[in-house]
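Severity: low
Component: inverse-folding endpoint
Summary: output formatting inconsistent between runs
Steps to reproduce: submit the following structure tokens with default settings.
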């Protein structure tokens, strides 16, 4: 079973030289706390993604979580979906997958899930899928590889399957962008992060988290073969999208 979550203090001390953010052992150990304090309406988003997954999940199919990290979303969907499906978690960090496996252990789910360690920049094999989730994942995939990745997902989804996509997004102009980022950092302060922690994490993420605008993400989904796309969540610079693969595309 997964141990009690530890508090995120990764950026609490002043660092002389900032390295790029990574998803290794230190991050994996505090990631659950990091998400709850850094993602607006985090618990409500988990509930929303689960209820969408319940409506699209089909017996005999696969549900994928790409960038599953410690498995919070995948496990929540596992508990919500009462159907004969297989849960597949994919992440580039073995440390994250170890914690995901610990979350599933002891829940009589051994034959219902599998975990794969791979870099999404190198592509992914999606088959017989009714639901694919990318929860704050696409923003870490290099822009050069995003279109092919989304095409692979669309091709691997069954007819009327869905992609649930949650992303940080840019504002449509620089004024909105500055405002939304300011409001986001104020939220992080309310959740106990100091200005130093916020500034150092921002620097660490600068070269690896590359957000698109909302309209760019929608265009990417449609260009990659999804027939319909709608917004199910929007909070300043965070957005949730659900894209449908339809037999009528």
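Observed output (run 2 of 3):
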């Amino acid at each position: 079973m997964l141990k009690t979550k530890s508090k995120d203090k990764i950026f609490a001390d002043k660092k002389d030289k900032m390295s790029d953010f990574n998803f290794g052992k230190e991050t994996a150990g505090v990631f659950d706390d990091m998400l709850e304090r850094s993602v607006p309406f985090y618990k409500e988003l988990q509930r929303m993604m689960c209820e969408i997954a319940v409506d699209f999940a089909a017996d005999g199919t696969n549900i994928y979580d790409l960038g599953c990290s410690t498995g919070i979303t995948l496990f929540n969907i596992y508990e919500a979906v009462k159907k004969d499906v297989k849960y597949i978690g994919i992440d580039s960090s073995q440390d994250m997958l170890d914690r995901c496996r610990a979350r599933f252990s002891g829940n009589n789910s051994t034959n219902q899930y599998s975990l794969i360690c791979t870099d999404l920049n190198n592509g992914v094999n999606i088959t017989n899928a009714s639901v694919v989730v990318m929860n704050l994942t696409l923003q870490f995939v290099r822009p050069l590889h995003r279109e092919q990745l989304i095409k692979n997902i669309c091709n691997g989804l069954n007819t009327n399957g869905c992609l649930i996509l949650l992303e940080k997004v840019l504002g449509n102009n620089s004024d909105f962008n500055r405002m939304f980022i300011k409001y986001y950092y104020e939220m992080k302060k309310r959740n106990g992060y100091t200005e130093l922690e916020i500034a150092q994490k921002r620097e660490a993420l600068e070269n690896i988290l590359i957000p698109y605008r909302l309209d760019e993400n929608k265009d990417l989904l449609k260009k990659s073969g999804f027939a319909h796309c709608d917004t199910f969540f929007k909070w300043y610079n965070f957005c949730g999208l659900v894209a449908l693969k339809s037999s009528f595309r």
